[in-house]
Design a protein that fits this description.
DUF4331 domain-containing protein, five-stranded antiparallel sheet, globular, DUF4331, alpha+beta, 9 helices, 12 strands
């Protein structure tokens, strides 16, 4: 749900569909920031003979704005090339793949990584970087963890990069939530659920044992901060960066029978992602594809969808009597200044004591990260609302429970921060899809690229 199949057209084109975006100060390297953009959603591990991969015709980018104008000051650009070693076999591999140069591996992907500045000047950081293969099974990829780790490339300037398959680390009860907004822990209170369910239930992780493709890069903090600052205080505006990812294709695609195809013209953006759930839940169906093709600087056109979200109006109707204070707030016609700050401007100083992650008043969907806040010694998956300022909505870490945080925020939990007279409904503590990071089968890694080893097809059949 973070951004899986979030718009009608992008759902038909998974290779350009961004699923999740992460930005956090690296827990094992606190002088560096890690940026991860996931693509190609909901991959079943048993996917032969054509295993999942990035698109050669796609320009994947992770953008960083460090002055609050909604324009990328730094962009990390990934472009891929696929090669076939043996054109006389239908097989992905003809024996065990024990290294990135194994002659048994038939279909490989390589990529070029570039850094683009605010003026559009492109600096190539590395070429011909190898991706790991997909995790086929114990015979084809017998030591996949080691093999994939060899695809972590160390680059000049203290940077490292990885592009390849990872275990899906995002957890959400898709089956229940999109069944008329049902939350299993509250399903007995649902307007229709009271006659269907005997009581509450734990959530079911719909994305468990599925894979994604990750673009992960770790760079020094000075690589993304305004002016290249190496040390700043948390209250310094230079500490904050805004991050989003996009995927683009050439404008013209002409099929030429018998001789391949031709792609030409300018690059056209087909998807973007900043904060989780924005396009998924807040943007109406008719506008979702247009939102995907627009820049963050145009998000003022969609700000009213954040200020008065449809889901906030639906909750009192779906759960009669459970949200009286939210119902009153909705009927007051007041804009949700709390949601506008969390999702579109960053949280200014003075709202949460000792914390801020705002660069300007510009309304733009970016994952805002205060890079001067160090990693937490004991992370709380509820992030800032759980008393952990190193977590969402201050950037986003792989384990952060963004579904619960945003559900509770929309339900009114954060409105009390800007209106001291407002009392969140008593049911707020139970507003969740009933999942935690413990419901992800693959263990997260403690080091880069942090997302777990992908599930293999032998043990995880489609």
């Amino acid at each position: 749900m973070s951004s899986h199949r979030e718009a009608p057209e992008i759902a038909k084109d998974p290779v350009v569909d961004s699923t999740d975006l992460y930005a956090f100060v690296s827990p094992d390297a606190p002088d560096k920031v890690t940026l991860i953009a996931n693509y190609v959603p909901l991959q079943t591990p048993a996917a032969g003979p054509n295993f999942y991969e990035f698109g050669d015709d796609v320009r994947y980018e992770i953008h960083v704005d460090n002055n609050g104008d909604g324009v990328a000051d730094v962009t990390y650009r990934f472009q891929f090339t696929t090669t076939i070693a043996n054109r006389d076999t239908f097989l992905y591999n003809t024996g065990p793949i024990t290294s990135l140069s194994s002659p048994n591996w038939n279909r490989r992907q390589f990529y070029t990584l570039s850094r683009v500045d605010v003026h559009g000047r492109e600096t190539v950081l590395a070429v011909n970087l190898a991706c790991p293969p997909g995790n086929v099974g114990p015979l084809s990829t017998p030591d996949y963890g080691r093999l994939a780790q060899s695809a972590v490339h160390e680059l000049q300037g203290g940077r490292r990069v990885f592009a390849g398959q990872r275990a899906e680390g995002f957890y959400v009860d898709l089956g229940s939530i999109f069944d008329l907004g049902n939350l299993r822990p509250l399903q007995k209170a649902h307007a229709l659920g009271k006659d269907v369910f005997s009581g509450p239930a734990m959530g079911v992780n719909a994305t468990d044992r599925l894979n994604v493709h990750s673009l992960a890069i770790q760079v020094p903090l000075s690589d993304v901060r305004r002016g290249g600052a190496a040390r700043v205080a948390p209250d310094d505006p230079r500490a904050v960066v805004g991050v989003w990812t996009t995927a683009s294709r050439r404008q013209v695609h002409v099929y030429k029978p018998g001789s391949g195809d031709l792609r030409t013209g300018p690059w056209v953006q087909l998807s973007r992602l900043g904060n989780p759930l924005v396009n998924e839940v807040l943007i109406p169906m008719a506008d979702k594809d247009a939102w995907n093709q627009s820049p963050p600087g145009d998000d003022k056109n969609y700000a009213h969808r954040v200020a008065r979200p449809e889901l906030a109006r639906l909750l009192p109707a779906l759960y009669p009597g459970a949200f009286p204070h939210l119902d009153t707030l909705n009927k007051s016609g007041k804009d949700r200044a709390d949601l506008l700050a969390i999702l579109l401007t960053g949280i200014p100083a003075g709202v949460v004591p000792g914390f801020q992650n705002s660069m300007s008043s510009l309304q733009a969907d970016m994952l805002r990260l205060n890079t001067a806040i160090p990693p937490a010694a004991k992370p709380n998956d509820l992030g800032l609302v759980g008393g952990d300022p190193a977590g969402f909505p201050n950037g986003r870490r792989p384990k952060d429970d963004v579904v619960t945080v945003e559900l509770r925020a929309i339900a009114g939990a954060t409105y009390a921060l800007i209106d001291k007279k407002y009392q969140p409904d008593k049911v707020i503590a139970s507003v969740t899809d009933g999942l935690t990071a413990a419901d992800v089968s693959a263990k997260y890694l403690k080091t880069f690229p942090y997302l777990g080893v992908p599930y293999d097809g032998y043990h995880n059949p489609s």
